[in-house]
Design brief:
Glutaredoxin
């Protein structure tokens, strides 16, 4: 066999080997794709792998958050149906549509690293204190680092019920602009009264923006 022929054979073998490797890389994983979250279950992608129940126990105790709402009357807003996230306070799954059903709700979207969010959260807590049972304020932590979110709330002394939504499913469903903080005001019937992609400095500012749209006095 000539030298050129031998090199041709070598090149062919290399190409076949590369083709097999590429096929294996692109082919189905023998173990199969990761199974999606079961209906009614929280997606594991909403938080870091490091945020296990054991790792979160201390930060949860330190944050001492209020309990997330139990299901209200009715199915809740259509756009939020099927979204299930974790209650940051205790790790329980929360069906978001049902949690806001039948009551005026203020959703405050934030992340632990957001400076304006940290300035606004105490004002949200004060607004909730003043509004009482007329409206519920739910904060939504939009970062996978749940531990950091809990520690930020503990640092601020804010104990509002909080949803852990690392994938930002709620914001996507409600078509909230990609800014933080942002506030979504929902009427009792589940319709969106306002989307407010801005920060608030005081409870008075929040009340002035929110109350007229949902009939709170």
């Amino acid at each position: 066999m000539s030298t050129s022929a031998r090199w041709s054979v070598v090149a062919l073998v290399v190409l076949i080997a590369l083709g097999i490797a590429l096929f294996n890389e692109l082919g189905d994983d023998p173990a199969g794709p990761a199974a999606p979250a079961a209906p009614g279950a929280v997606s594991p992608r909403d938080k870091r792998d490091a945020d296990t129940p054991a790792a979160l126990a201390g930060p949860r105790a330190e944050a001492a958050l209020a309990a997330c709402p139990t299901p209200g009357a009715g199915p809740g807003p259509d756009v939020l149906r099927g979204i299930v996230v974790e209650c940051a306070g205790d790790g329980a799954p929360v069906d978001v549509a049902r949690a806001v059903a039948g009551r005026p709700t203020v959703l405050n979207l934030w992340a632990y690293w957001c400076g304006p969010c940290a300035d606004e959260l105490p004002a949200m807590a004060e607004y909730q204190r003043r509004a009482g049972s007329q409206v519920q304020v739910l904060t939504v932590h939009q970062d996978e680092n749940e531990t950091a979110g809990l520690l930020r709330l503990a640092e601020l002394g804010v104990h509002l019920p909080t949803l852990q939504d690392g994938r930002r499913q709620i914001a996507a469903a409600l078509q909230v602009p990609n800014v933080m903080p942002a506030t979504v005001v929902l009427r009792a019937d589940g319709s969106v009264a306002q989307i407010l992609p801005r920060s608030f400095a005081t409870a008075d500012e929040i009340a002035a923006a929110v109350d007229p749209t949902i009939g709170v006095r």
